[in-house]
Amino acid sequence: ESVMKILSIESSCDETAAAIIEDGRCILANQVYTQIAIHRKYGGVVPEIASRNHVMKMPYVVQDALDEAQLTFDDLDAIAVTKGPGLVGALLVGVSEAKALAYALDKPLIGVNHIEGHIAANYLAFPELEPPFLALIVSGGHTNLVIVKDYGTNIILGRTRDDAAGEAFDKVARVLGYPYPGGPAIDQAAQIGDAQAIDFPRVMLEKDSYDFSFSGLKSAVLNELNHRKMKNIPYKKEDVAASFQAAVLDVLTEKTIRCAEAYGMKKIVIAGGVSANKGLRTRMDVAAKQHNWALYYPPLSLCTDNAAMIGARAYYDFKLGRTSSWDLNAVPGLEL
Ligand code: KG4
Ligand code: ZN
């Protein structure tokens, strides 16, 4: 049986990315052009600026991927692209590029769900990893606990009711004066700060719920900072970062453990930008030892947005017959 080479494109937020993936598991090329430096001065992603930069960079990123793999368009078997969720204008750049390529080259087009892509980052890092497993997805836009039953079936057990985990990191970082994106800055600060300095709320919701809520925690951090500024009570930024992060990690770890126990899952996968968090990885490593889990999280380069994970997921979508037609459109609010 011959191998399948998929060119994949990602442009859902502020990374312009293209990759070439063989049979869903092997990275032949992985090019990421990040716009972080462009958006930093605005304190967050400006959608219109993101779209414009995707337009400017996309053809070069695609060519760089081909060059990296030492391939030409003729060597490709399919074109994949993130169809959602994400910023609509940003998504449309990738979708248009992928459609144009697939049409011109007469190859199949595969629209991929970005969240499923994050999960598939682990397929690239761990060739032996196969469903079923329990996945905790923690990114800038999403927080989900889901049983990946097989390559085509997700059972969603929990989702955020307000802010995503990464969103909370970014908002708290912003009020602490850290540059965008704040997650990595909080992660670093938390390593030297005192996690017990401030007792922030751990919002667990109903006893049997696997949903999340982080907006109350975010408000608690803002209120604490305002209170201290008004009363001239000194504080260390690092302590606030560490205390905030500990509250997030307590909830994420506790809910994952509960969920794994309730459903008898021993194979646990973490994915999404926040899975880069050192504290989260350490906490999950400890939980894995205690509960006898086989635990998987991607290398740092595959945690945040990239096209390699989209190409990995696309392979399984293709095998399931889930190809797209020429009316493929961006779906900004696409769910898992
Ligand atoms: O998956 P991702 O690149 O984009 C989305 O699909 O949303 O996730 C980006 C999010 C941002 O909120 C960023 O602050 C967060 O992941 N992040 C982190 C870390 N690295 C990235 N959060 C905590 N600790 C980190 N080390
Ligand atoms: Zn993402």
UniProtKB/TrEMBL annotation:
Residues annotated to bind substrate: 137-141, 170, 183, 187, 277
Keyword rRNA-binding: no
Gcp-like domain boundaries: 27-311
Catalyses which reaction(s): L-threonylcarbamoyladenylate + adenosine(37) in tRNA = N(6)-L-threonylcarbamoyladenosine(37) in tRNA + AMP + H(+)
Chief location of this protein within or outside the cell: cytoplasm
EC number in record: 2.3.1.234
Name of one Pfam family that matches: TsaD
CC annotations in GO: cytoplasm
Gene3D superfamilies: 3.30.420.40
Record-listed Fe cation binding positions: 114, 118, 305
Domain of life, per lineage: Bacteria
Biological process according to GO: tRNA threonylcarbamoyladenosine modification
GO molecular function: iron ion binding; tRNA N(6)-L-threonylcarbamoyladenine synthase activity
Cofactor: Fe(2+)
InterPro entries in alphabetical order: ATPase_NBD, Gcp-like_dom, KAE1/TsaD, Peptidase_M22_CS, TsaD
Keywords of the record: Acyltransferase, Cytoplasm, Iron, Metal-binding, Transferase, tRNA processing
UniProt similarity note: Belongs to the KAE1 / TsaD family.
Family matches, as NCBIfam families: gcp_kae1 (TIGR00329), T6A_TsaD_YgjD (TIGR03723)
Protein name per the record: tRNA N6-adenosine threonylcarbamoyltransferase
Protein source organism: Pseudoramibacter porci
Gene: tsaD
